[in-house]
Design goal:
68% helix, mainly alpha, elongated, 3 helices, 97 residues
Amino acid sequence: MEMKVGELIELVDETIANLKIAIIANSNRTFESPYTSYEFTQRALELQEDLDDLMKVREGLSRLDPEDEAEEHFSKEELERFLKLLELLRNTDAHTY
């Protein structure tokens, strides 16, 4: 799997955008019912933690040359785990919460 740092940054940016939408959706749903407000508030907080972590990763990636191969900076295993995590976070469907 060959991937440039710039491509990795694009995936991170896409994931960040999806998480922001999911946070807003969960935050808005906290006012629907007193019976579910805690669940949606808790989920929004968890997503915010994920977003904060991704923002830090994004900041670190932005210091690298976007044309570098990602494998020059990360092991194959690290990259595979990170890509799997991004996929899970990116597939967070805000409308299912």
